[in-house]
Design a protein that fits this description.
The chain is of the alpha+beta class. The chain has a single domain, classed as 3-Layer(aba) Sandwich (Aminopeptidase), CATH 3.40.630. Helix content is 30%, strand content 28%. The protein has a six-stranded mixed sheet with strand order 1-2-3-4-5-6, sandwiched between helices. Strand 4 and strand 5 form a beta hairpin.
Length: 146
């Protein structure tokens, strides 16, 4: 299913399908996203079917060229895994993905959105700043693998 109004310049945005999981993992590797313990076909398939998650992909020529995951826990919206293949960057794909997830989170009731951004990727940091997001110096992220 294509998302109305987001078909442009040879690419479109749609909801990620169960069958896209392996291609999505390949996209993340191509986009140089830091590998994570949750980067598995099963985890992606679980996210795709989770009622609080919005997993969107950008597609061009039948291939995945961008992705984003948005979630809403009833308190705050969260954005993860914004990634665009290097050969498709600077076409507005990332901005369109963020705008679509922001709108879905707004409709779900989110008043604030947190974006997890890889500090070691200066282009990613610059993108989020240009998109109007601010670094929150009060927050440090702690994690534990289960």
């Amino acid at each position: 299913m294509k998302i109305s109004g987001l078909i442009t310049a040879g690419w479109s945005i749609r909801e990620c399908c169960f069958e896209d999981a392996a291609a999505l993992l390949a996209l993340w590797r191509q986009a140089d996203a830091a590998p994570s313990k949750t980067d598995t076909v099963v985890a992606i398939q679980r996210a795709v079917t989770h009622p609080a998650a919005f997993v969107l992909v950008a597609e061009a020529g039948g291939q995945l060229v961008g992705s984003i995951i948005g979630t809403f826990d009833g308190w705050r919206g969260n954005i993860y895994r914004l990634a665009v293949r290097p050969d498709h960057r600077r076409q507005g794909i990332a901005r369109a993905l963020v705008a679509e997830v922001e709108e879905r989170l707004r409709r779900a009731g989110a008043k604030r959105i947190t974006a997890l951004v890889e500090r070691e990727h200066p282009d990613a940091v610059a993108f989020w700043e240009a998109a109007g997001y601010e670094l929150d110096p009060r927050i440090v992220r702690y994690i534990r693998d289960l």
